[in-house]
Fold:
Amino acid sequence: MKKVFFVLSLSMLLVVAACGSNTNSANETSGDAEQMDTKSVLLDFQAEIVSVLKENNEDIAAYESAKFAVSDSETPEEEKPSTEELKELKGSAVEASKATVEGIESLEVPSELKDSKEEIESALDELTEAYEIRAEQAAIDDPSVQEKALEHFTMFEDQMGKVFEDADLIKPSFAKELE
Structure:
């Protein structure tokens, strides 16, 4: 009888141990899947941000390029835009910057990124500020204002980069996406 009880106890112990092992494995798999979901959602959100930025970037870049050409002593006069063309490009750049601000403000942080929501929203605030300054800068034509816009854009990239690094992803370069 002792032998039967011993074998039965040993069998129960093995069954319980096996069940516990499967539970740990299932929890690990669930955690890995959740982390992959977060990474996927974060990458999708990055693509959404880039899409918003690219939507109006052509007008902004055209104006920046024209401004550079006007002030560049090495650019031949015939390649420099006229005052009228520059004025037209400026108007388009201001409107494009304002449209970009609206696009950024319409972005919603996905619920799957709730752990990083504050950091992402803070980064988006920096990005909004950069484009608001760009709209202002186009109207003001003050080079120091452009530096402020670049500062805010860099802070946006740094903050978003931290979110990506915290998710074990490579820090993205939004500026390169716009080139």
